[in-house]
Amino acid sequence: MQLTAEERQMLDGSQGDAVRLAMEILVRVGDACEARRLIPVRSAHIVLAMYKSIFDAGVEVCEKFAELGGRFVIPTTLDPSGMDTADPAGFKTPADYQAKQRRVEAAYHKMGAVPVWTCTPYFCGNLPRFGEHVGWTESSAVAYINSVLGARSNRETAIIDVCIGLTGRTMDYGLHRDENRLGTVLVRLDLGGRAMRDEEYPLLGYHLGKALGSRIGVLDGLRSDPSNEQLKALMAGAAASGSVALLHIVGVTPEASTLRQAFGGHEPQAVITVEEGDLSGVKKALTKEPGSPIDLVALGCPHYTINEIARVAALLEGRRVKPGVELWIYTTAENALLAKQMGYLDILEKGGARLTVQTCMLISPIETWGFQTIMTDSAKCAYYAPMQCHADVCLGSVEECVEAALTGIYGGGVDQ
């Protein structure tokens, strides 16, 4: 790997032991990826942040870099915490677990991380521009910034993300290079001429993740102008069921104003047609039978925006969650504050719902509650929850989720 004079100084320890260790790791990984050089990046986002996923070894890694004097040299945000940061005890987080998560927090505070604790940092101040090189982990966030914003990041891994933040460098390979960002698979969406319904975006994402794997798809035929929230759900589903890091959406992705641009003038290597039955098939595959009892409705994977919180408040207003059922909405601390200021939190709490901040149902220890069946509107959650939460799952629209919270039963209907 060819290093600049400054990078050689980093590697020889002239900028401290933490930078030296980080550079050693980047160079070794870069050699394995056949990258010829490192490139500067403008921001980092770290997934090595939650105890449930990183365990004791991950805590020690964070503390090691901090003890060596590491300081982040670019804006570096953090993925969700392994527990609700406002009320961990209220969500039954064991004391020893809390202590280890606090050690992670302390290490990142010492290194100068931006503690947004979210899987949607692009909504919380870490917003890369079109063409900007960044070094991010969190699969759904990487898919979003590549596909919606036209920024450039590979799906980096834990520890590599810390090294990127400490050096301001990443390896020049994969989606950082023009030739690797062209579409290879044409995806024709055929829903009989109608536009996508809101609840179908996560289903489409999940289906495409399975179909594409790590290939770059070009989605044509989306007869709607998707919102940021819908695109968030689409990318989260695709990044969970497959290795999708870039999905060109014709008319949405900056690099895909036309099919020709998305493919760089080349013919697609394969063509996939997605029909309504494919979407309903995803829902059926990820869902228990209608009539299943529900004890937790979990919304906000990825984190809910204030618009999504407002929607749940409108559905719940004047109604009450059934006793014995929990309705939790996962979001950022900033959105929780907005919800309070705008009156939504009062409506939710009167209805028996709870906001939980800066964490996620998948990486917090909700198994301590003994939930049997979780209802969610997130394909990502539905995919991971059986393993991560030790519970069965039902997947539905937000309207179906609220109804399940009110009745304690998954009805199995499909909104029109």
Tell me the strand order in the biggest sheet: 12-11-10-13-14
Given as residue ranges, the uncertain stretches (5+ residues, pLDDT < 50) are none
Taken from the alpha-carbon principal axes, the silhouette is: globular
- The CATH topology label of the largest domain is Aconitase, domain 3
> What's the architecture of the largest domain in CATH terms?
2-Layer Sandwich
Strand content: 5-15%
SS element count, helices? 15
Percent of residues in helices = 25-40%
Number of domains: 3
Distance between the termini: 55 Å
Q: Mean pLDDT score, rounded?
A: 97
Biggest pleated sheet:
5 strands, parallel
CATH class descriptor of the largest domain: Alpha Beta
The total beta strand count reads 14
H/E element string? HHEEHEHEHHEEHEHEHEHEHEHHEEHEH
**SSE class:** alpha/beta
State the gist of this model.
With 416 residues, the chain is of the alpha/beta class.
Any overview of this molecule?
This protein is of the alpha/beta class and 416 residues long. It folds into 3 domains: 171 residues, Aconitase, domain 3; 103 residues, no CATH class; 120 residues, Aconitase, domain 3, CATH 3.30.499.10. It contains 15 helices and 14 strands. The strands form 4 sheets. Strands 12-11-10-13-14 form a 5-stranded parallel sheet, with helices on both faces. A 4-stranded parallel sheet has the order 8-7-6-9. Helix 8 crosses helix 14. The chain is globular, with a radius of gyration of 21 Å. The chain starts with a helix and ends in a 9-residue tail after the last helix. The model has no long low-confidence stretch (mean pLDDT 97).
